[in-house]
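Hey team,

Filing this mostly as a record. A colleague (T.K.) asked me to run one chain through the structure pipeline before their review meeting, and I want the input and output archived in the tracker in case anyone asks later how it was produced. No errors, nothing strange. Just documentation.

Input sequence:
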Amino acid sequence: MANPSQIEQITERVDRLLVRYEELQRTNALLAQQVASLTNERDSLKSRLNAARARIDALLERLPEVASPKDTA
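Output structure:
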């Protein structure tokens, strides 16, 4: 059987592992929140980009056709 010293060492190690596990869980939760926030921000920016593209396309369609130099010759 393990002597009391070994049991104490194992107990301390398990305690440290549990503390580390809890720290990692908190870190993981924070990282998951950041990922969600950045995903929302990315989606918003993509939406704004698509809207800007649509506005530019609409403006381009309103421009008159410009004759190229070889068309006038």
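Quick notes for T.K.: The two ends are 103 Å apart (CA to CA). Helices lie at 4-62, 69-72.
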